[in-house]
Structures are given as structure tokens and as C-alpha cells.
Amino acid sequence: MKKGKATIHDIAEKLNITASTVSRALNDNPRISENTKKLVLKMAKQLNYQPNHIASALRSGKSKLIGVLVPTANRNFFSSVVRGIEDIANELDYKVIISQSYEDSEKEIQNIEALLNARVDGIIASIGKNTENFDHFQKVLDKGIPLVLFDRITNQLDVSQVVIDDYQGAYDTTKHLIEVGCKRIAHFTSPKKINIYKERLRGYEDALKDFGIPFDPELIEESNMQLEDGRTSMENLINKGIVFDAVFSSSDYAVMGAMQVLREHKITVPDQVKLAGFGNEPFTSFTAPPITTVDQKSIPMGRVTAETFFELLKLDGKKGNNQKTVLKPELIIRESTQKSN
Amino acid sequence: MKKGKATIHDIAEKLNITASTVSRALNDNPRISENTKKLVLKMAKQLNYQPNHIASALRSGKSKLIGVLVPTANRNFFSSVVRGIEDIANELDYKVIISQSYEDSEKEIQNIEALLNARVDGIIASIGKNTENFDHFQKVLDKGIPLVLFDRITNQLDVSQVVIDDYQGAYDTTKHLIEVGCKRIAHFTSPKKINIYKERLRGYEDALKDFGIPFDPELIEESNMQLEDGRTSMENLINKGIVFDAVFSSSDYAVMGAMQVLREHKITVPDQVKLAGFGNEPFTSFTAPPITTVDQKSIPMGRVTAETFFELLKLDGKKGNNQKTVLKPELIIRESTQKSN
DNA sequence: AGTATTTGAGCAATCGATTGCATATTTATA
DNA sequence: TATAAATATGCAATCGATTGCTCAAATACT
Prior knowledge:
The structure is a homodimer. In chain A, helix 8 packs parallel to helix 9 and helix 10 packs across helix 11. In chain A, helix 9 links the parallel strand 6 and strand 7. Chain A is of the alpha/beta class. The first copy, chain A, folds into 3 domains: 44 residues, 434 Repressor (Amino-terminal Domain) (Orthogonal Bundle); 129 residues, 3-Layer(aba) Sandwich (Rossmann fold); 138 residues, 3-Layer(aba) Sandwich (Rossmann fold), CATH 3.40.50. Chain A has a 6-stranded parallel sheet with strand order 2-1-3-4-5-11, with helices on both faces. A 4-stranded parallel sheet of chain A has the order 7-6-8-9, sandwiched between helices. Helices cover 45% and strands 15% of the residues of chain A. The interface between A and B is large, with 47 and 47 residues. Chain A binds a DNA duplex through helix 2 and helix 4.
């Protein structure tokens, strides 16, 4: 078959009208009569007409593509956010290009470049952990291209953003640990510049303060927050002989590592040490015992992010006020923080 | 700023040559002198020229976009395959549009439609579990658009595909269980039409046969293979009073569920029952005990799939022989199948 | 020197849809 | 019944890059 390419011209020809009319009819332009629209639609169906988005993108300057940049699609949180974004985007007839930075600054820069080259109408991004320079994002803003950041944000950019209340999540978790009797709560955090870890640390500190528990810097372990790092952190605590009865980790992965090390040392969870993570990665519910964690409301976050994005898009380059949305996280209490007898 | 749009015309003007020459120079066309090329490249850099892929796509009919359709990007296996694909694609200056079917046939059809509408140059896909009708893929083939399937394939389509040797993986795993002393090995599988589960079942059966262990249909549990299904399957076995000393599950998720139920029943792993999964999802290494599983070589699979795809692309619609690549899986032996004393 | 080749570059059409600016036909208003 | 206003459609340029064809100049070959 000859590439079944029906164009608006073919429709026009059959109907003895012009392509402009067909184009307008298809776009439901009010200047076209209902009758003509009906005819055009019918003929379009009959010819199995498929609009050529490329042509339309070229002329209109709108590609109907959104670039989504995430550190990795492989994390439940990110893939769920993406799903939320897709839900909204697809409703509005936009497609989503996902690209992954793998927490690599260099790749992040390249990906932004590539997305712009693909002529996306805008970008939704979550910043890689190791990114400390934000010029590539600033460039996007400078070009007047809609940009929304979610979760991994920075305040070095004047940009719309959607986050959860990391402070609150951390505060609630720490409070919960205190309420189940913990007095020496270790905290795993990251030395990286991204806000989320700082906020979680702050929530932890404030909860301690509010409940009259002294903050002890010895209980803070900084790392890259992967599973292996969690193991190392836990081994550090144990080897240094530091006394602790709980760990609140800013990452589920790290707390998982900690749990492994505890088990190897025959230290029981939750009896001797209670554990809480952050992120509600699926595996936290699989483990024995299942791990208390903070749900980041990923799908709502995706939807809100997309909505914010589309509002920005509507402004069409006109500078509006940047929106900053903060979603409430949810503490998911599981066995790992069960009160000991 | 005025959308900093430098076009080939701008370059041409500055250099007092025509756009055609610029275009050819940029594409390294042999009909253009080295000298001119050098000048063009220099001016392009100077004007910060960014090629408009949309325009080029319209004219050339090549969008340099590949549509990748996966059930969910949220699974380590799929996201790793995607990563492998991206690696190769980016090297060749192609971008990847990921779209997720969420194992929903309807969404799968829509996504294929959307990808075609986005004028991707071709599609790489893994079929959703619930898909039993393949017309939408056939349509892609009929249009002469390159299509490569990986992992979740079907033999109802005449198409290039990349899989791992599921049979071998299952055979090796079963053999391993037999070698560590198991005689009553249950198998979790799916009733779905996709090949992978059938092949794994076949590998399981053949290994039993080769080692003189009778096949017992009572030991086969069919389900959708999610964590919950694994729980149910395990409960079924226990409730029916079926004797078994191992489970080989075609899914890591299901085996995880089984492990939970075993623990609840105070049945120890690996002493009383040994467990093996399939997929090498990261969490299988987190659990206590870590679970023996089969690694599906996801990144190589992605790379091979992409390579197959690009070969197809080179044929440019000319019917070549469909390639079928089978990769060797790797049995990852962990504590859950440790020989009992 | 005279014709044949090769080399380098320009012209203009094209990809398919969109859109500002007419124009023609009705309908409404004075 | 003119004239203004509204309605429905056409014309032609345009988005930016690509490409078949043509042509001039330079080089090669009897």
C-alpha cells in the first residue's frame, strides 16, 4: 500500500474545498460552518486521515511533546510521577518523552539539550543528585520554554515547582519514633545540595527539639543513600559503639541496607532497633519486618506537576508567577517501628 | 530574546551561498568542497545554529525518534532494557520515546497509535501480559514500519525479536534445585499466552524429566504472578496439604509473596523449602534470605534489541529476514537455595 | 585545442498543516 | 433599499530543511 497517506489536501479535493478550510474544520475553528465540519470529519474518517503532527509542529511551532527528565525511571517514585504526568498529558493530547539522567550531571545536560532539539514544548524535570550547577536549566528558562521541577528541586532557580513537604514527613516520622519510645534516633542523610535531604534533616531536628530530645551529631550519618551506603552507615554506628534505638533514613534503600547489617549482627527489628525510611518503595512492604516509611504521593505529584506545567504553557512565554506546590506526605506505619513490650 | 533561531538560511546569507549548500555542508555531502564545509560549520557555531529536527523530519520523512513500548518502566528489567536501547540510540543520534501500556491491551493499542502519530521511525515493544490480539502490531508491520519485539513476544507475528533463553534459565534453575536435594519442586506460572512462561514451564519439566523426577500437576500454580498472587499460590499449596520442598517461580514478585507466607507459617527458607525466582529484580538481593533468581541480561538485551532495530531501519522498508536473537540468561545463586545440612 | 568528466553550488519544488489577509455570500440594521 | 456587520471560505505565504535537476567552472583525456 502507498503509505496510506491521506492529507488535508486529499480531503479538500474530494470535497471540492480548500485545504485551509479542511484544516480549520478539523481544528474546530468557529469560522467554519457546522455542515462543512461534518463533511470534513466524515471524509477524514473515510480516507483514514491521520494528521501529520510533524507538519503541524513545524508550522505552529508546537510539537505537543513534553520532555520529562528524571534521574531514573527505575524507581517506583519516579515512574509513578511519570504515570501521573502521562495521565494528564494524554488527556490533553500531549505525548511524553522520558529521558533519564542516571544521576549524572553530564548526561543531564545532554538530555536537556536533546529534548530541546526534539523541540519539546516544555520540560518537566527532577534534578540529579550530583548536579550542583544549574546553567542548563537556566538556559531553558531563558529561552522562555516552560519548565517545572518536581521533588528534586533547587532554590537557585526561579521556577515553578512541586514537592512534598519533606520537613513534615520527616517531622512526623521522627515524632512517631519518639512516641513508640525511641530516645536515640540515628538519621541517615545526604551531603548533597538538593533540598529534600536538608528539609528532612530539619524535620528530624525540630521533632527532637519539640519533644525535648537532645540532638547528637554522632547520630547523623551522611552518605549517598544507596543500599550499600546504608550498610556502611550502620556498620559505622555499630563499630563506633554509638548507642541508638532507631534509625530514620532519608532513603528506603539505605534503611534496607541498615536492616541487613542489623540482622547480621543479630540485632532485632523492631525490638532492639526501630527503622523508618522515606519513599515508600514497594520493597519496604515486602521485607521482614515490613518497614515504616513516608509515602511521597507520587501519582498526585505527577498530576499536579503536569497541571502546573500546562498552566505555564497557557501563558505562552509571558512571565507569570511561579507556582510552588507542596503536597502532604503520608506516614506509613509498619512493623519495623512497632512499640516493644 | 528573539528565540535565538538561526536557520540554514541565516548561515547561507552570511556566507553568500544558498541554503541548499549549507544543508549539504552540514550533512557532510561529498558534493560540497571541504573548504565550504569548514566555513559553514564555523558560521553555524558562531550563530549558535541548532538544526530544526521537525523541519528535517517533515521533509525527509525521518523523525529520528524511536518509540519504545513497555508494560511498565517501573520494573528493573524493563528500565534496564530501555537504558540499553537508549545507549545505542543516542550514539546514533536518535531519541527514544518511552510509553507504558501498564499491561492494559487497550492502552497498548492507543500507545501504538500515538507513537505512529508522533511519526516515530520505528517501534520497539514488549507485549503486555493481557494482550491476546496482535492486530495493532500487525498494522505497524503492514505499514512497513520497523518493529522489534523483546522479551514478551508472540509467535503470531512475523517479526524480529530478542529474547533470553527462558527455557534454559528455567532448566538451569530447576536443575540447581534438584542438585541441592529438592524432589518436590512447585512451579508458579502464568496462564497467559506469552511465550516466556510457556518456555519456563517447559524448561522446568525437561529438567525434572532429565533427572528422573516425576512431573506432578498438583505442584503447578497458575496466577498473574504478582506478589499477592504468589501469596495466594503458596497458601493454596499449604492449604491443600501438598508436599513440596522448593518453589521455582517464573516471577520474582510471586516468589517474594511465597516467601512471606512461608515465614508466616514458620516454614524456614532454605532449610524446609528452597525458593527461586526469575528476573533478578533488585529486591531479591535485599531479602532475608536473598533469593536465587535468573538474571535476564537486561542491558545487553536492550543493546541487542536496538542493534536489531537499526539494522531493520537500514533496510528501509525492504523486507529482510527477521532476526531472532536469543541471549543466555544467568542463574544467580543465593541463600534461598542453599543446601540444607 | 577540443571534447568529456568531474566537481561545486544554485534553483525551486516539496514535505503537510497553519494562518493572516482577502473575498464572496448572507443576514441584520438603519 | 442601501449599508453595515456577520458568516463561510479561499488564496498564498510560511515553518526550516531536503533534494532532484540544472549549470558553470575546473580538470582530464585524446
